[in-house]
């Protein structure tokens, strides 16, 4: 049998990126918030893992679990393997394989994540990706599937068309950027109609060329409708459970009030989510799928919630000044909820069951659940990890700081106390590498341990 021809570019490397939604603790906390048991802390797998940056951070932060990354690009896999070896991460492996022909990958996997793949490949690979998940997901497992969605993502097909049309230029990325910038300057109708296009262009101007090539110069760039993606998975026996982006599970904070009223009484999941996508002009979705299982009853749900331990993240804003910047505008955080919550977490990590006894939350676990999910989404609080002193985390961080000092792009460091990674801006990365930076961050990254 001949190997499938890649329908994705392989001649340029995708830069390292970290996605906190892929962390086992994040996925577990979101599932539990939605009323489903957390998956086992067994085997995690990323489909289309690029250079395996997220996989490396998460493997170092969760040494009690196993991690696997799969990607068709041999250079990506070579970089990923070299980093894992240098950091001595023996719970992490990478496979160079096309998802249409994933030989030698047995599974089952308790968590399967994929980011930046589904909207950038043709229907054959999309189907193969869904089939892989349906075949390899453990019975209690979860799949987190990110893609560019209709209708908000559709706007960027216009950018894709411009970059693709520049493919013959000596430097297509620079050419495409210059053409788009000129159009914006000229107040082109596209930029007038799509307020976020200018912001996206500004962001692109700060990105390495490899990022832009992968995002906009593949043959396919297809924002997908929720119904199409949900159908791919439901045809294979998997059930949509919600979003890995907590904000998208909270209508009160993510849907304009009037639009929310038009959703009242809509029970059909596909129609409801499609209407929500229109209400939010949703550009990106991060859908969670599991095998069919009845959601936990109220008592069981409470028991699941009460088991999660939450920690405040360094740099959390004072509760009085807290405003959530959401895609539908600023949402003021109610200080009657967030002041006691953040004050309690500032004293140290706390179990949901303990925070629940504080007056505004007593007898109102739903309110606390929502407040914690907003805090998770906003990067203020996070579930506690299982291995605060993971030695692999400190080794990996020292390696990454050395790479950053050499000018490499290092978007995040491994935060073992959270079982995750944490984004670090370049200036702070330099301070940390030079032995400085805030003490709370040095502790989070295990930088002063022998
Ligand atoms: C945009 S990059 C995203 C990388 C990583 N998931 C991230 O978010 O940083 C997409 C990755 O998917 C990989 N990919 C595309 N099609 C694939 C296929 N059919 N099988 C395996 N990997 C694939 C590409 O090589 C690339 O590394």
Automatic annotation (TrEMBL):
UniProt-listed InterPro entries: Methyltransf_25, MeTrfase_reg_dom_prd, SAM-dependent_MTases_sf
The entry's keywords: Methyltransferase, Transferase
Domain Methyltransferase, residue spans: 46-141
Organism: Salipiger marinus
GO biological process, any: methylation
A Pfam family it matches: MethyTransf_Reg
Protein name as catalogued: Methyltransferase domain-containing protein
Gene3D superfamilies (UniProt xref): Vaccinia Virus protein VP39 (3.40.50.150)
Molecular function, one GO term: methyltransferase activity
Signal peptide boundaries: none
Domain Methyltransferase regulatory: 210-291
């Amino acid at each position: 049998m001949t190997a499938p021809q890649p329908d994705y570019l392989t001649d340029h490397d995708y830069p390292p990126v970290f996605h906190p939604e892929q962390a086992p603790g994040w996925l577990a906390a979101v599932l539990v918030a939605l009323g489903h048991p957390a998956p086992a802390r067994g085997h995690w797998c990323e489909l289309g893992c690029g250079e395996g940056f997220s996989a490396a951070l998460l493997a170092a932060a969760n040494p009690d679990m196993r991690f696997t990354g799969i990607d068709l690009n041999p250079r990506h896999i070579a970089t990923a393997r070299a980093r894992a070896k240098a950091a001595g991460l023996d719970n992490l492996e990478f496979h160079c394989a096309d998802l249409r022909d994933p030989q030698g990958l047995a599974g089952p996997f308790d968590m399967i994540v994929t980011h930046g793949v589904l909207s950038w490949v043709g229907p054959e690979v999309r189907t193969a990706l869904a089939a892989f998940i349906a075949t390899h997901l453990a019975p209690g497992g979860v799949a987190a599937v990110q893609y560019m969605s209709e209708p908000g993502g559709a706007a960027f097909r216009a950018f894709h068309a411009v970059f693709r049309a520049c493919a013959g230029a000596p430097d297509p990325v620079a050419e495409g950027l210059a053409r788009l910038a000129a159009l914006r300057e000229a107040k082109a109708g596209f930029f007038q109609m799509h307020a976020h296009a200018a912001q996206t262009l500004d962001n692109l101007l700060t990105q390495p060329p490899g990022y832009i090539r992968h995002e906009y110069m593949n043959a396919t760039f297809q924002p997908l409708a929720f119904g199409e993606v949900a159908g791919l998975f439901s045809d294979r026996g998997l059930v949509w459970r919600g979003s890995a982006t907590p904000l998208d599970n909270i209508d009160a904070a993510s849907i304009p009030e009037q639009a929310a009223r038009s959703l009242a009484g809509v029970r059909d999941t596909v129609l409801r989510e499609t209407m929500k996508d229109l209400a939010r002009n949703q550009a990106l979705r991060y859908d969670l799928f599991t095998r069919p299982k009845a959601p936990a009853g109220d008592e069981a749900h409470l028991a699941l919630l009460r088991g999660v331990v939450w920690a405040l993240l360094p740099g959390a804003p004072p509760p009085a000044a807290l405003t959530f910047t959401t895609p539908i505008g600023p949402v003021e955080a109610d200080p009657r909820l967030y002041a006691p919550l953040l004050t309690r977490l500032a004293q140290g990590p706390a179990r949901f069951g303990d925070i629940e006894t504080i007056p505004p939350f007593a007898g109102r676990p739903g309110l606390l659940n929502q407040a914690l999910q907003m805090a998770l989404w906003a990067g203020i609080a996070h579930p506690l990890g299982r291995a605060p002193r993971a030695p692999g985390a400190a080794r990996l961080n020292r390696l990454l700081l050395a790479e950053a000092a050499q000018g490499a792009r290092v978007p995040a460091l491994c935060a073992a106390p959270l079982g995750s990674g944490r984004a670090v801006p370049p200036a702070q990365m330099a301070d940390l590498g030079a032995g400085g930076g805030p003490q709370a961050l040095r502790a989070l990254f295990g930088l002063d341990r022998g």
